[in-house]
Amino acid sequence: MSITNTSATIIQPLPAASSNWLRDLVGIAIILAAAIVGYFLFPNNLALLTRMIAIMLFVLSLDLVTGYCGVATLGHAALFGAGAYAAGIAAAHFGVTEPITMIAIGAVGGAVAGLVSGVVILRGHGLAQLVLSIAIIHLFHEAANKASNYTGGSDGLAGITPDPILGLFEFDLWGRTAYVFGIVLLIVIFVLLRILVRSPFGLLCRGIRQDPVRVSAMGASVKRTLIKMYVISGVVAGIGGAFNAVSTQVVGLDSLSFTNSAEALVMLVLGGVGTLFGALIGTIVFIGVEDFVSAANPFHWLTIVGALLIAVVLFAPKGLYGTAAALVERYRKGGK
Amino acid sequence: MTALFQVDRLKKSFGGLDVTRDVSLSLQKGDRVALIGPNGAGKTTFVNLVTGHLRPNSGKVLMDGEDISTFNPMLRVRAGLVRSFQVTRLFADMTPEQHVALAILQREGKSGRVAGTFQAMPDVMRETYAILETLNLVGLARTPVSEIAYGQQRLLEIALAMALRPKVLLLDEPAAGVPHSDTFLIENALAQLPDDLAVLMIEHDMDLVFRFARRVIVLAAGEIIFDGSPREVTEDARVREAYLGSYGHASSAA
Amino acid sequence: MQTFFSIGVDALAYGMILFVISIGLSVTMGLMRVVNLAHGAFAMIGGYIASYAARDLGLAYGLAVILAVAGTIIIAIPLERFLYRRIYGAPELTQVLMTIGITFCVIGIANYVFGPTLKTIPLPPDLQGPVDLGFRTIAAHKLFAIFCGVAVALGLWYLIERTSFGVKLRASVDNTAMAAALGVRTKIVYAASFALAVGLAAFGGVIGAELLPVEPYYALRYMVTFLVVVSVGGAGSIPGALIACLLLGAIDTTGRYLVPEYGEFFFYLAVIAIVWVFPRGLMGRAK
Ligand SMILES: Nc1ncnc2c1ncn2[C@@H]1O[C@H](COP(=O)(O)OP(=O)(O)O)[C@@H](O)[C@H]1O
Ligand SMILES: [Mg+2]
């Protein structure tokens, strides 16, 4: 193989790597800019923006298994809810009120729920997989409902009073601290996920989404890879859930509901499956519209979600971000 | 001496149809074997059986004397038994560079890494491009597979198999769908395979078979009817009857 | 002994209702390979129509049933034509999204039109009260449900095994392209089976209203129940669906009797256990 050396000099690994980092920086800048704009545009509605951040983490986590690995699941709220309850119970019953510790406990709770869900859901394929995913979210919901000593059952879990962050920043009445804390969390996780999805592991997951048979013919374990991704996804969703518990100081049973799972899927699809930006944009648009509509007429919300879903499937199967990205790509190619 | 790869009395039937009947064969290090036979003879089924993509009714598969019959496809690959697919199976959104790099990473046990990129791993990049170069795919290295021609996708199939550095390589019609003008690329690739690798190639192109193989096995209706040298295959009466009867011109071409 | 008998009857009645509702789903999934999460929504629409006809308009029960079935089919036809046809052969996620979207719309609209409360369908006098079987008495409506289940199973078996429509249906299930090449108008077969499936769902929704009460979240509450029948019984298999329904009926009813507090918990646990044990369905068919 005498060509080895020449080809190594032809292809410089550096440009790809540095352009990756550049795009990460642009991504961080966009998130920061949006956060600042949101802060000044809706100073009285920071709670809504903060909830958006928690849900963004949840939808990002769903994107990892659905978008990057191709697992269609309707039970992903189990991971989010597990994180929320883990953090909430730690605070309300065991006096663990240090916020960063609570987030870490939520991450562990989410990871455990991710492991359990992953093992169960990946047992089947196709319809069986879907059935397992729906059954598991109902199972978690019922379990939380019955364990009301710890979870507060259908009344929800209250009495979560987090300490100041690092002992310095107290959670204020206007939710400024929670908002800034959320943005920091989001940016950290976004960067880590960017690294994850372009890592060898991320590449392997993309392969599994497209052809699991080919992946196993390469000698990789499809199942073990997917379960690992489920655990990672659980960490992210768990952090989202825990952050929601910290910022709202309550955990409701609806965080573990089928509807919550389905709505996360809607947000993901709305934004664009398989891209991190898609997950973020889908969440912003969905929760923005939800807030607007339920202010006008809460009755029609479910109908609108349904119609939105149908419309996305029919007219923008790549989602908002995916469609926009495709347009830009075509424009670029045309320009060249 | 135990064979590197041995198949022992493999049987498979679909419903009532016996597709593999008592097939036994063995390969030694460095073997270059062509498996030929009319369409529907059961060649692809044979590959699916030995690589674990189908479960046989009975029979055993051994690597280095170890029984791997209970292994799933993944474990068989790790034992050194690698195949290519007759109908290309690739990742449509991914580039040839990513395909080959992924196979190398997998082989080296690095595919589970959650940080870093293969572009930043000089060894992986060097080997990736060496393999792509062999198959003349460097120009397309960063084009998604869905946008490259089928013939070149076939070459990428072979690139993947090479990247896994198997001990035994089963190629299911590697040249099917490759334009005739490009089959030399496949022959080049085959010529660059390590000497101690055992290769079994299913192929219809008799020119290619006669140039490549030092041993030919003929499968007809699920049974091995011939196992010998390329010179003898054209003279064997049963082969003539079962196979060359319909491909008479092929013998004259050789 | 008395409890045992009651559990048995209830389980049988519940299982038969499940069968009537889900068998249509099974047939269409076998035929069109569409994961239809909205199937329960059609049962619910049937229930609402029957309730409106019998309770608000005071029509006879039999008439209400017919109106419900016909009305649901009429509602379903444009849905099939404009929405479902777009997702035949689409990836699973697309099908899930579309049919969840339809489910949400139906729930939202039902909530708006009929309100969030339970709707009853008044039974005719013959189906109220107990029936004396000689050694035991059982509720007439349960007996009726069991009877309907058996009738639907036999009727479907006859339709599929003995009629020319059945031949075309089976051919299309086995190999759509081949059936089309042989002159079967598969689009019509699709549409007819879809109508049949929806009609059966509506019928099951009406006769099962005593056990599965009609309310807006019906379509979500029982979604997994209907789907698991198909997943375990195997898409397109009548005996498979029958066995799966009886099994689920038995589990659900036993749970309710023995541990009423944790009934749903054990039901979902059982669903997971069953699918875990039979990930490819009872008949072991891949995909
Ligand atoms: N999954 C299957 N189910 C039923 N029959 C099959 C299946 N796979 C292959 N066959 C049949 O087995 C026979 C051998 O097929 P195959 O191994 O693909 O032949 P070849 O590769 O030699 O052309 C053919 O008659 C084919 O129809
Ligand atoms: Mg073949």
From TrEMBL, chain A:
InterPro entries: ABC_transp_permease, LivM-like. CDD domains: TM_PBP1_LivM_like (cd06581). One of its GO terms (cellular component) is plasma membrane. Keywords: Cell membrane, Membrane, Transmembrane, Transmembrane helix. GO terms for molecular function: branched-chain amino acid transmembrane transporter activity. It is a multi-pass membrane protein. Pfam families: BPD_transp_2. The keyword Cell membrane applies. Its main location: membrane. It is found in: Cell membrane. The chain crosses the membrane at residues 21-42, 48-65, 77-96, 102-122, 127-144, 178-197, 230-252, 264-287, 299-317. This is Branched-chain amino acid ABC transporter permease.
Automatic annotation (TrEMBL), chain B:
SMART domains: AAA. GO terms for molecular function: ATP binding; ATP hydrolysis activity. InterPro entries: AAA+_ATPase (IPR003593), ABC_AA/LPS_Transport (IPR051120), ABC_transporter-like_ATP-bd (IPR003439), ABC_transporter-like_CS (IPR017871), BCA_ABC_TP_C (IPR032823), P-loop_NTPase (IPR027417). Residues 5-246 form the ABC transporter domain. It comes from the Bacteria. The keyword Metal-binding does not apply. PROSITE patterns: ABC_TRANSPORTER_1 (PS00211), ABC_TRANSPORTER_2 (PS50893). Keywords: ATP-binding, Nucleotide-binding, Transport. It holds the Pfam family ABC_tran. One of its GO terms (cellular component) is plasma membrane. Belongs to the ABC transporter superfamily. This is Branched-chain amino acid ABC transporter ATP-binding protein. The lineage of its organism: Bacteria, Pseudomonadati, Pseudomonadota, Alphaproteobacteria, Hyphomicrobiales.
Automatic annotation (TrEMBL), chain C:
This is Branched-chain amino acid ABC transporter permease. It is found in: Cell membrane. Belongs to the binding-protein-dependent transport system permease family. LivHM subfamily. It comes from Phyllobacterium brassicacearum. One of its GO terms (biological process) is amino acid transport. The chain crosses the membrane at residues 6-27, 34-54, 60-84, 96-118, 138-160, 188-212, 224-250, 262-279. Its main location: membrane. GO terms for cellular component: plasma membrane. Keywords: Amino-acid transport, Cell membrane, Membrane, Transmembrane, Transmembrane helix, Transport. PANTHER family: ABC TRANSPORTER ATP-BINDING PROTEIN, BRANCHED-CHAIN AMINO ACID TRANSPORT SYSTEM PERMEASE PROTEIN LIVH. CDD domains: TM_PBP1_LivH_like. InterPro entries: ABC_transp_permease, BCAA_transport_permease. It is a multi-pass membrane protein. One of its GO terms (molecular function) is transmembrane transporter activity.
